[in-house]
Amino acid sequence: MGYLLSPTSPAGKWMGFVTAVWVQAISGNNYTFSNYSDALKSLMALTQLQLNNLSVAKDVGKAFGILAGLASDRISPSALLLIGSIEGFIGYGVQWLVVSQRIQPLPYWQMCIFLCMGGNSTTWMNTAILVTCIRNFRKNRGPVSGILKGYVGLSTAIFTDICTALFNNDPARFLLMLTVVPFVVCLFAIVFLREIPPSSTAAEEKSETRYFAIFNVLAVFIAVYLLIFDITGDHGLSLSRVFCIVLLILLASPLSVPVYLAIQNLIRSDHKTLDVEATANTTTEPLLIQQEEQATETVAAVADDSKASLAVVEKMPPVIGEEHTVFEALQTVDFWILFVSFLCGVGTGLAVQNNMGQMGLALGYADVSIFVSLTSIWGFFGRIGSGSISEYFIKKAGTPRPLWNAASQILMAVGYVLMAIAMPGSLYIGSIVVGICYGVRLAVTVPTASELFGLKCYGLIYNLLILNLPLGSFLFSGLLAGFLYDAEATATTGGGNTCIGAHCYRLVFIVMAFACVVGFTLDVWLAIRTKGLYSRIYMSRKSKKSMAASGGR
Questions:
Q1: In angstroms, how far is CA 517 from the centroid of its own chain?
Q2: What are the residues whose beta carbons fall under 8 Å from the beta carbon of 508, sequence distance 6 or more?
Q3: What distance in Å separates the CA atoms of residue 201 and residue 14, rounded to the nearest whole number?
Q4: Which run of H or E residues covers position 498?
Q5: What DSSP assignment string belongs to 430-494?
Q6: pLDDT digits (tens, 9 = 90+) for 101-133
Q7: Are 37 and 357 in contact (CB under 8 A)?
Q8: Rounded to 5 degrees, what angle do the CA atoms 463, 197, 536 make?
């Protein structure tokens, strides 16, 4: 029975994806800073600017994700996961020791280093997961990105709700979970996650689409379940324990796909059992060189003209849709449009997530965990919905993926305006809107980069785009939110400061709304520039579908 779960078998392939989902479900710990930031502020007697710079240090760890990108084509996904799990164990473990008061608060610069390590740990996990799964399922990049990024969004709510249910929002126990759980899950994923040849037939692609639909449904069930727990108020200890047990069962439910495939293969005759597996094993298409035919067929047509013209084409820089090296991608206008628009979206979104604790307290909310969970859960809906919807419209009409980024940017700007007005309930609405739009931004940009610049150097290109997380956190959270909050705040006797009232963050929200308008303009420009590429992708898929249909008759 060992062959049933081998990496190249159908069941083994999907078992790898299930473990990838689990890793993503615990790798959103970078977005949970608001759950324990107030404890750090009190223990270390920090001003808001100092606290925000701690959150920036956490996000600066993502800047070193370039190392994970460079390593992704040189070492195995298992090695990437092992590095990330050990680094996260150390980074969050030291924070737990400080917050639980088992050791005295470390000097400020040392705390910055350990927060940076915690932030960097997720870049190794995310690189291993995203690069491997996008290559394994390259004909369903939108759903893959949406599902995986969706679980990253849910991870904040998963950790927060479990901590609320079992530990009464104890920040020390929360950090203990962030230390131990990701380490254990990554060790499990190391066993199953491998790069394997992608689907090579229309039947395999159709089968993948069907199974991704199952993953989407299961993920939505988990998100709705978490949302119901959040909006139903306080729960007793017994009910909270039942909630956690059911949540763990739901998180294990994606196992149904590889288990079904393993049973299906087991009960078939030997020649039928190995039919699909043999097809996969005989595929010789190099993983790092060949990109999906969707964006390269026009170049192949030119290459057939003559050997002389082929030589000329090979000397020309690649066009959008072809394989790019990192330096070739950096020389394109399209990369920098995508980079800056990404900064406008994720930078402002991170500022809200890092400061959600102080935003809630400023508006008179004693418990801000509900806002952290709402941002996380609705971020999930933004991620998983945009991945599948953008893929659907590419297949049906060749709609450029960046248009969905543009829509999210303008909606995010509206959310910031609502939060600036500070009407009753505006923080609830704002956290939902920001969560959705931040999720769309992440889920759509991941496959967009692979379609524009190819898969050959995708790991490094992805981590270059992720530089926007520390950069955006520094600009919008560390500088903008930190300085403007401290300008409005009053000093406290303990050495920190505090601010109460809608005025504390009003100017911050207005500036971030303007940044989103800039991002919207850039995304529309990129959609116009890439319209031809997505039209070719649409026509290529349409022609293949027609050929498959005619061949079946």
A1: 23
A2: 351, 480, 481, 484, 485
A3: 17
A4: strand 497-498
A5: HHHHHHHHHHHHHHHHHHHHHHHH-STTHHHHHHHHTTHHHHHIIIIIIIIIHHHHHHH-EE-TT
A6: 899 889 999 999 999 999 899 999 999 998 899
A7: yes
A8: 70
